[in-house]
Write a structure and sequence with these properties.
α2 packs antiparallel against α3. The chain starts with about 35 loop residues before the first helix and ends in a 9-residue tail after the last helix. The N terminus is likely disordered. Helix content is about 35%, strand content about 15%. The protein contains four helices and four strands; from the N terminus they run αβααβββα. About 10% of the residues are buried. The longest helix is centred in the C-terminal third of the chain and has 48 residues. GO terms for molecular function: sodium channel activity. It is found in: Membrane. InterPro entries: ENaC. Keywords: Ion channel, Ion transport, Membrane, Sodium, Sodium channel, Sodium transport, Transmembrane, Transmembrane helix, Transport.
C-alpha cells in the first residue's frame, strides 16, 4: 500500500472550502479523529485543519516531516481581500463571535443541521455526545420539513457561509514527508520534524490610495506642475524681456545713423 496515495477518511470533508451547504460533505461519513480537532483546541485563531491532507500512519516506519510556513497578511474591506479580525469585538462584552474563519463555518453548518435534522452535528469541538446525531445516547426524531422551510434553511445557511470572512493573518503550512521502513519487526514508529529553513515567506497586501492619500497625491502633483509652469513662464518672459531690450538698443543705434547732420561756418 502506497502511503502517499492512501485515502484518509478524514479528507472527506474540508470545511475550509465549504461555500454551499449542499456541497458540504456529511460529517456522518467521518469516523476518524472524533470528536476534537487538536489544533483547533489548542489555538483556534492560528489553527490549521488537521483533517486536511492527512496520511495514514503505520507501525514499523520512520517518518521525517519537513514543514515550511507561509504567512499572508490580508486587508479588510473595502479592499478585495475582504478579511476580518475574528474574535471578540472591543465594544461588546458578551460576545458570541467565532474566533476564526473555520469556527464560523462550523457554526453555520451546525445551526443548519439543527434546523434540517433536529440535531447539531457538524462541529469539530463539541461539549457532549448528545450534540451528535449518530452518536447521541438519546433517540432523535428528524422533523418533517416542507419545501419552503427547507429552502429557507438552505438560503439562511448559504448566507451564513458567505458572512464568514478569512482572517487578516492567513497562515499556510506546507510539508514534505519522507518515509523509510525499519529493519526490525517492531510495532514502533518514529516521527521526526526537521526544519531545514526557518525563514517564513510573507506576502503582504499593500493598500491602494484612499481618499485622503489621493487628494494628497494629486495636490502634490498639482503643486509640482504649477511650480514647473511658473518657472517655465518666468524663464520665457525673461528671454522676451532681454530680446526686447536688445532690439530696442539696436533700434536706437539705427536711428542715430539715419539722422541728418549739418555744418555751420562762421566768416
Amino acid at each position: 500500500m502506497d502511503i502517499n496515495r492512501a485515502t484518509d477518511i478524514n479528507r472527506a470533508m474540508d470545511i475550509n472550502r465549504a461555500t454551499d451547504i449542499n456541497r458540504a460533505t456529511d460529517i456522518n461519513k467521518r469516523t476518524g479523529n472524533w470528536p476534537m480537532d487538536i489544533n483547533t483546541a489548542t489555538d483556534i485563531n492560528r489553527a490549521t485543519d488537521i483533517n486536511r491532507d492527512q496520511v495514514l500512519f503505520f507501525s514499523n516506519v520512520k517518518r521525517k516531516n519537513h514543514p515550511q510556513e507561509t504567512e499572508e497578511r490580508l486587508l479588510p474591506p473595502p479592499y478585495q481581500t475582504d478579511c476580518r479580525d475574528n474574535g471578540p469585538s472591543k465594544d461588546v462584552k458578551n460576545f458570541t463571535n467565532p474566533n476564526s474563519y473555520e469556527m464560523c463555518l462550523d457554526l453555520c453548518k451546525s445551526e443548519n443541521n439543527k434546523g434540517m435534522h433536529g440535531c447539531g452535528f457538524g462541529m469539530k469541538m463539541i461539549m457532549s455526545e448528545d450534540y451528535l446525531c449518530f452518536l447521541s445516547k438519546t433517540n432523535y426524531n428528524q422533523p418533517y420539513l416542507g419545501f419552503k422551510r427547507q429552502r429557507d434553511l438552505l438560503d439562511k445557511g448559504i448566507a451564513c457561509f458567505k458572512n464568514c470572512k478569512q482572517g487578516c493573518l492567513k497562515l499556510q503550512y506546507s510539508y514534505k514527508i519522507n518515509e523509510k521502513d525499519l529493519d526490525d519487526e517492531s510495532t514502533k514508529s518514529f516521527i521526526y520534524f526537521e526544519v531545514k529553513n526557518s525563514e517564513v515567506t510573507i506576502f503582504r497586501h499593500v493598500p491602494l490610495y484612499g481618499s485622503g492619500e489621493i487628494f494628497s497625491h494629486v495636490g502634490g502633483l498639482l503643486g509640482c506642475w504649477l511650480g514647473i509652469s511658473v518657472f517655465t513662464f518666468t524663464d520665457i518672459l525673461e528671454k522676451f524681456v532681454k530680446k526686447g531690450a536688445i532690439w530696442k538698443k539696436g533700434l536706437r543705434k539705427m536711428k542715430k545713423k539715419k539722422a541728418p547732420t549739418s555744418e555751420f561756418r562762421q566768416d
